[in-house]
Every structure is written in C-alpha cells, then in structure tokens.
Inverse folding.
C-alpha cells in the first residue's frame, strides 16, 4: 500500500465489524480481530506507515468471516492512495512465509559470487535447507531433492499466492525430510507452482542462495 493520507483512514472492511485502518498516528490498526500480529515490510515490529510503498500483512489465529468485503471504506472514512495485490488466506502465515511474500514482491534475485564452484559449493534455500551441487556436463544440479516450502494436503491445488507450497508423500511432513535411503525424499511441486520461482540462467532466485 502507498497512502496519500496516512491519518485516520479506512483501508479494508471485512464484514462491517472486522476492519483494517490507519489511526490518527499513521499506524496500521486491525479492529475486531483476535490478537492480531502485524507485519510491515519485511517483519513484525513498528506499524507506522509513511507515504512510500509498504508491504502489510496482518494475521490472527482466529478466523474471520469476510461476508462483506470492501476495499477503501472502513472505520467511517475512505482510503486515499494506492493498493496492489490484496490477498486473504484461509490459514495463518508463518513469519517465514510473510518474509518470502515480501521478497517476491521486491523481485529479489541473488547472483552467486565468482567463488561459487559447482560440485564444491553448496546452495541454501530460504527455509535453511542446504543442498550439495554436482556438475553434469555443462549444467549445475542440486544433489538432493528440493524441500523448500509449506506443506499442503495433496487434495489441495498449489496456487499462485506468492507462498511456495509443496506436497509430501502421504500428507506426512516426515516424507519430505526422512532419508530414503540416501537423501531426503523432498517436496512434490505442481508445474505451475514450480514455474513461479524459476529464474534466468546465471542467477539464483531469492529462495536459493550460495551457502
């Protein structure tokens, strides 16, 4: 969001009771939410908004029925400014997922340093998983299966929501991490989900950086 006016402005009304607004001091405020957690830009902390672009996420462990979803009018006033990519999730995002959404919004890519040597160096995804590399011909491959992402049940279609989602065999997290027999099974990704995070040759995406 990029507000033109940051004081006492509505942002989103979910159902006439639960809403998001900017208070008189320019802080993001969730009214009618149960114990909300606020993330502004790349992490939790200060909720004050300026006239620049900000990535704002609010989570709550208690679900809200968005029966009358309005963008703009809330708290008796109207939002003035710009908004982009408004999303609602049916579960609580983790801090890591919020950070990943922020990074994806920035379009961050990390280029491996000149000291990177395929077959010797390792790479690490944003979840902290480390992968050895192997040179096959002229291409550099990861030696272990990819395991990054949040597990969703196999019955759930992986969606274009900025959150890396994966399936684990049998809907069991252990099947994405247990050695069988030599390396972790890794996650299973639908084609469209995997292509969201593809990158150009010579650059690693934000979720894969030299370790």
């Amino acid at each position: 969001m990029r507000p033109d006016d940051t004081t006492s402005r509505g942002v989103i009304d979910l159902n006439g009771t639960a809403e998001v607004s900017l208070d008189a001091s320019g802080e993001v405020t969730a009214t009618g939410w149960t114990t909300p957690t606020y993330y502004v830009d790349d992490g939790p902390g200060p909720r004050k908004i300026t006239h620049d672009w900000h990535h704002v996420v609010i989570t709550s462990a208690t679900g809200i029925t968005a029966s009358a979803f309005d963008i703009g009018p809330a708290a008796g006033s109207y939002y003035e400014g710009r908004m982009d990519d408004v999303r609602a999730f049916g579960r609580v995002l983790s801090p890591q997922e919020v950070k990943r959404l922020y990074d994806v919004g920035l379009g961050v890519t990390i280029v491996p340093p000149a000291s990177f040597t395929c077959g010797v160096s390792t790479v690490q995804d944003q979840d902290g998983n480390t992968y050895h590399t192997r040179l096959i011909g002229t291409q550099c491959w990861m030696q272990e299966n990819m395991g990054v992402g949040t597990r969703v049940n196999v019955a759930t279609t992986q969606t274009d929501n900025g959150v890396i989602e994966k399936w684990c065999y049998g809907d069991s997290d252990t099947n994405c991490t247990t050695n069988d027999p030599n390396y972790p099974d890794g996650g299973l990704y639908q084609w469209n989900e995997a292509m969201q995070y593809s990158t150009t040759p010579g650059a690693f995406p934000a979720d894969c950086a030299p370790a």
Q: What stands out?
A: Residues 199-211 have pLDDT under 50 and may be disordered.
